[in-house]
Design goal:
alpha/beta, single chain, 6 helices, disordered C terminus, Rossmann fold, five-stranded parallel beta sheet
Length: 151
């Protein structure tokens, strides 16, 4: 049912939640995984228009993605990684269609009304922009400390 799952990562402790969940889902469905992180700092948002070099933040994000994809491959998953630049919701929705993903699986922090007004909600924006089904997983990232999902 889900041949290819797009997994947006934040490069934060919240990634533990979605990686734990998506491992189980991918095993059940035999899914390939495509990890994405969208760098959204000044350099990332303007890299093409201003012909900028990759920032230190972008290099660290790319290394983190590669590390996560390698860990999944060592566990026997088919996993790739892509670093996007710009608006996270737009890039995630575009990548899901461009890469022919059947599902977007992402973690959500569970902000409530004021938190979403102040911080916005990438998950909510993705949900509205994408024609690909979106699975939102919420949980406590600390429950995975020390487990394989925390790596």
């Amino acid at each position: 049912m889900y041949a290819r799952i797009l997994v947006p990562l934040e490069h934060s402790r919240w990634d533990r939640i979605i990686l734990h969940h998506v491992r189980q889902l991918a095993r059940i469905h035999g899914s390939a995984l495509l990890l994405i992180h969208v760098a959204d700092g000044f350099a990332a948002r303007n890299v093409a228009q201003l012909d900028l070099r990759e920032s230190e933040e972008m290099r660290k994000d790319r290394a983190y993605l590669d590390e996560q994809a390698s860990a999944l491959r060592r566990e026997g998953f088919v996993a790739d990684a892509v670093l996007g630049c710009g608006d996270p919701a737009t890039e995630i929705a575009s990548a899901a269609e461009r890469e022919r993903c059947d599902l977007i699986a992402m973690s959500t922090h569970g902000h409530r009304f004021f938190g979403d007004l102040i911080h916005g909600s990438v998950a909510n924006d993705v949900r509205h922009r994408s024609m690909v089904p979106v699975l939102l997983v919420r949980g406590d990232p600390e429950q995975f400390v020390g487990s394989a999902a925390a790596e």
